From TrEMBL:
Name of this chain's protein: Uricase
Its biological purpose: Catalyzes the oxidation of uric acid to 5-hydroxyisourate, which is further processed to form (S)-allantoin.
Stored InterPro entries: Uricase
Enzyme Commission no: 1.7.3.3
Protein family: Belongs to the uricase family.
Binding site for 5-hydroxyisourate: T57, F163, R180
NCBIfam families found in the cross-reference section: urate_oxi
Natural source organism: Wenjunlia vitaminophila (Streptomyces vitaminophilus)
Catalytic reaction(s) noted: urate + O2 + H2O = 5-hydroxyisourate + H2O2
Residues bound to O2: T57
Pfam families associated with the record: Uricase
Active-site residues annotated for this sequence: K12, T57, H257
Positions that bind urate: T57, D58, F163, R180, Q229, N255
Length: 301
């Protein structure tokens, strides 16, 4: 039976690079997990075993380390852009490079009197929660697509959330809630309008990331929620309203259900105080919010 090769590519996944930049006794840390995927005129390696166009994935890993040394890591996005453009411009067989970055944030351990006296404050760090900063850059040699975002940011409102008015069928047992706990783990990706030098200066990646993160948190906290769907829309909309460089936001929000525990068997009344935090199954609410006139470009996955 005849066969043909469909879409294919190769890359190095999850190169972990930690870059220390020393400014006297004060050190700065960047901690990334970098995944690279290349595609292009590479059919022959699959069909005939001809490796002429195949940049080894080992070389991709080395390039990550060498670029961290030579160029530093100004931001996840700037690092990803430089890597992506390097592969499409230096390898004739490569038509498209995709670079995904996860960044783990480290906070400085601030000087209490003891460590300050020992002078250790400049080089001691504590990892921040489970929150991960993410970015995905694709480069087809002409234009970039830059997606930034975060995952694992867990938030909870202990009031100002209800869920009522939904249809009931013979399988519905859920009680309407007029005051419930609303909790989710925010997984967000946003797309920049900037696609390359022709669009003017690069967005200020770090500043926009900080602003957008704050917008997600504020909108979550300040929205009186009738559903997680409504909260999702407000979160995405606030990022777009406050960040002119962002055209699209995609959110994936697991509903981390908190069910009231029945305390009646113990002769106790549960006044919305004691909850069972279920880890599964969970509702999964996902959606994209667009600047008016923009086209959706973030993959749904
Ligand atoms: O905010 C919610 N949206 C839903 O679609 C849903 N479905 C459900 O059982 N609980 C909830 N909560």
């Amino acid at each position: 039976m005849a066969t043909v090769l469909g879409p294919a590519g190769h890359g190095k996944a999850e190169t972990r690079v930690v870059r220390v930049t020393r400014d006297g006794a004060t050190h700065h840390l960047k901690d990334l997990n970098v995944s690279i995927a290349l595609a292009g005129d590479l059919e022959q390696t699959y069909l005939t075993g001809d490796n002429t166009g195949v940049l080894p994935t080992d070389t991709m890993k080395n390039t990550v380390y060498a670029f961290a040394k030579e160029h530093g890591i100004p931001s996840a996005e700037a690092f990803a852009l430089r890597l992506a453009r390097h592969f499409v411009t230096s390898q004739p067989s490569v038509r498209r490079a995709s670079v995904r970055v996860e960044e783990y944030a480290w906070e400085r351990i601030t000087a209490d009197s003891r460590s300050a006296a020992r002078g250790g404050a400049g080089h001691s760090f504590v990892r921040q929660g489970r929150q991960v900063r993410v970015c995905r850059v694709t480069d087809d040699g002409q234009r970039y697509q830059v997606l930034s975002g975060l995952s694992g940011l867990t938030v909870l409102n202990s009031t100002d959330s209800e869920f009522r008015g939904y249809p009931r069928d013979r399988y519905t047992t859920l009680a309407e809630a007029s005051d419930r706990v609303l909790a989710t783990e925010v997984n967000a990706l946003w797309r920049y309008g900037w696609t390359g030098e022709g669009d003017g200066p690069e967005p200020a990646w770090d500043a926009v990331h900080a602003r957008a993160t704050q917008d997600l948190l504020e909108a979550f906290a300040e929205t009186y929620s009738h559903s997680l769907q409504q909260t999702l829309y407000r979160m995405g909309a606030q990022v777009i309203e406050n960040n002119p460089s962002v055209d699209e936001v995609r959110l994936s929000l697991p509903n981390k259900h908190h069910f009231l525990v029945d305390l009646e068997p113990f002769g106790l009344k549960n006044d919305n105080e004691v909850y069972f935090a279920a880890d599964r199954p969970y509702g999964l609410i996902e959606g994209t919010v667009l600047r008016e006139g923009a086209e959706a470009g973030i993959p749904e996955e």
